[in-house]
Amino acid sequence: MKALKNPALALLGLCLLGVALNFSVNAYIQLILLFAGVNCLMSMSLNLVNGYTGQFSLGHAGFMAIGAYFSAYASTRWSFAPPSLLIVQYFVFTLGAGLVAAAAGFLVGLPSLRLKGDYLAIVTLGFGEIIRVALLNMDFLGGPRGLSGIPGFGSFLWSFSFASLWIVICFFTIWRVMRSSHGRGFLSVREDEIAAEAMGVNTTRMKVKAFVLSSFFAGVAGALFAHFTNFINPSSFTFLQSVNAVIMVVLGGMGSMTGSIVAAIIITVLPEALRPLQELTGVDLRMVIYSLSLILMMILRPKGLFGDMELGDVWRKYVRRSA
Amino acid sequence: MQDFIQHLINGVSLGSIYALIALGYTMVYGILKMINFAHSDVYMVGAFAAYYFARWIGIENDPGLSTLLTLIVVSMICCSLLGLVIERLAYRPLRNSPKLNVLITAIGVSLFLEYSGQVVFGADPKVFPEVMKDFVIFNIGNVEVRSFDITVLAVGIVAMLALQFLLFKTKIGRAMRAVSANPMVASLMGVNPDRIIAFTFVVGSSLAGVGSVLVGMKYPKIDPLMGMMIGLKAFVAAVLGGIGNVGGAVIGAMIMGLSEEMVVAYLSSTYRDALAFGILIVILIFKPAGLLGKYSVEKV
């Protein structure tokens, strides 16, 4: 659990894990792991809005799309770094993708965050769809054909380390923010908006801040997604992608960072792990099982895997005590 | 001008289909304060039920009004049973849990129906049997009034009037309104809220069944994912009119249907889906509770 407190250690640990995975598993599993990394970023960032700030957003895929398109467009058109420093260039583009998505998040959040509950959910859903349809109609971004030939990182090790870098940045940014006065502001908005306002918290501002930060990391996730798949088109970022992000947050437990990571990995791996079943029965039952387990989960364990506890708390509560 | 009137007719006909589905969303929201995402898939199942029934009985060979009515009734029965089962198994255990959990469950049920539909019915689109002949009933100048548009409109209006009668003139309608206003007080007055909620699901789902047969007649291609987009739009229509408000849902649906038809006619069909949400966002920003919804101020 020590690594959870030190960013450098965490990054080192993840890179070592990357080296180990580089030699131990095949390319198929490696790709799934990279997608798990993207989903980790998605769920952690959405957790900031849905879990900590209590604002229900259903348009996360839209920001992911903006990030993905920015980074894809930039890396196929522009180049400023020598080949040896290509990774720096990627970092700049990914950062740019995040910033563009954050700007979009600001524009979307400012009007819509005045709404509450289901209305907010439906407006964010609407913005997500509008972003997708707008991309569908932009010819310089390929329209419905999408963008192809997006350069990747070359090897799995580089991809995994790059994803790890962003996961660590995301995790510790949100972790530190949640333990600052901003974080307490976010929590107060979630717990009781009227009381928070009475105590002098500018609730709209808090919500917009959380939304912008969340969109930033969604944009980064989108950029990573674009570089990992080398091809994107608007139908990669549908309503279902947003729903998937919400499912990860709720499955992990609202307001649990480590919970969202664990849930992101489960949600990414589960459909792939059920693939042998498909060969066995001959029909594609994977998504049926997936959706059924979602319903059962909500009925039997409504607070998600971890509730609002972190991995460390769960460890102390269930494992160490029984030992 | 003639084009405009023609588009107007098409828009109203599309709007009345949206209205039938939007009513299901709005009724469930009014009584449970939840977005029933599975509603659009109940609609999909209704279309498939009608499709298989028509093939089983063999009535696809004699199109006419009686065929249409039979299929509507079959679809209504199947949909209401499905709605009842969903409510009993998935939503009732979560009656007192946080809203988000209910929402996720609804999404789960929706995904479950969509993917089981792909397994059971097959993912390829099926051609809905011809339930009625499409012919021009009369012309006004160059404007054609086709039998499909008239049928859709007529069935839609009858269904909505029946709903209006049910809600405001019958005992169970009064009970539904009471539960929607305050379930606690309603139960103290001798209304069983669980029963009324189940009945609401039955009514909403059977309206979706009516809608599914009308859509199957007008756009005869059905597949397990057909509910997604139309469901989303019907839901937007319900929110637009003020969710929980029956009249609002119809107005919202008409706005959606007309604006969609006009955009396709005068702008570009690719912007069709964006426009629906664009209207929604503009209206919600200026009128946060929808057109007819009442904005309630939270008191401490």
Rg of chain B: 19 Å
Work out the number of β strands of chain A. 2
Which regions of chain A contain 5 or more consecutive residues with pLDDT less than 50?
none
The biggest beta sheet of chain B, please?
A: 2 strands, antiparallel
List the helices and strands and how they pair.
The complex is a heterodimer of chains A (323) and B (300).
Chain A: H1 7-24, H2 27-52, H3 60-77, H4 86-112, H5 117-136, E1 147-148, H6 156-178, H7 181-191, H8 193-198, H9 203-229, E2 231-232, H10 239-252, H11 257-273, H12 275-281, H13 286-300, H14 311-322
Antiparallel strand pairs in A: 1-2
Helix pairs in contact in A: 1-6, 2-6, 2-9, 2-10, 2-11, 3-4, 3-5, 3-9, 4-9, 6-9, 7-9, 10-11
Chain B: H1 2-32, H2 39-57, H3 65-91, H4 99-120, E1 136-140, E2 143-146, H5 147-169, H6 171-181, H7 183-188, H8 193-218, H9 227-241, H10 246-266, H11 272-286
Antiparallel strand pairs in B: 1-2
Helix pairs in contact in B: 1-5, 1-8, 1-9, 1-10, 2-3, 2-4, 2-8, 2-9, 3-8, 5-6, 5-8, 6-8, 9-10, 9-11, 10-11
